[in-house]
Task: structure prediction
Amino acid sequence: MILYLARRLAAVAGVLLAIAAATFVIFYVLPSDPAAAACGKTCSPERLTAVRRHLGLDEPLWRQFADFLAGLFTGRTLGSGQYAIRCDFPCLGYSYENSVPVWDLLLDRLPVSASLAVGAAALWLLLGLGAGVTAALRKDTFTDRALMVGAVAAASLPVYFTSVVLIHGVIRTAGLLPYPAYQEFSDDPLGWASNLLLPWTALALLYAAMYARQSRGSMIEAMAEPYIRTARAKGLPERTVIVKHGLRSGMTPILTIFGMDLGGLLAGAVITESIFGLPGVGRLFYGALVSADQPVVLGVTLLAAFFIVVANLAVDLLYAVVDPRVRY
Result:
């Protein structure tokens, strides 16, 4: 297990290094004027001069990349003299549109995106696995067909359509919930949940549909295995056979896609956060695209890559916990 973990951590480090190199090339090598691209739409000539000094464009490319990597792990000082700006660990860049390090912007928005992602993930797992397992256990019945038709219908609806329908139906027409305005969990747990319920639902309906279809197929395949017949022949209760033997082995493909989905959402759900007005990383990313705030776009890209890679590592380690057939 320790040797496997060491190999996986080395692989994670290699992937993150490759992603950092790719983003550096895209944002700092390919543009004809990296300083103008990083400075944004509202850049003054004086600020552009400072940005050129911060980026060290007169240095060799290998030196620029080395400074870029060093900033990710130890922080760095951008520029020198009167142009110097300290960018603490982890230095993902400096937003000249907001006059603040990118990591400070992300750190302020991360709790919102994390709350949205974790709550939606819990809801779509509950709905998706419940519908998929129920359909698998009632294969080729009316219940199976009804659940799968509903899953296909939910998966075909884009999240912005579902969000608008929920806002109009639940908030404007019925008046059951207030329009989402993010509150800290520590300040008001009930207000935190009520303000995020509709965004959770909009995301969960889309993902739950895909998880229902995937879990149905996995459960049908798992329940046809010889060890399931052996467990039943031993006289084990049907609930034990389904949960302990069928569901655990059928969860492996679900874990795989769950790691990718959750890792991506932790870095922001652009459409959902924009529609519901949530000040998360996704909305920050959208604003950076509109204002051409390149350092923020780069920072969100690196953050998303980190979450996805780490989530996949966690999924690999959970395989042995969920499926007893897996050994490292």
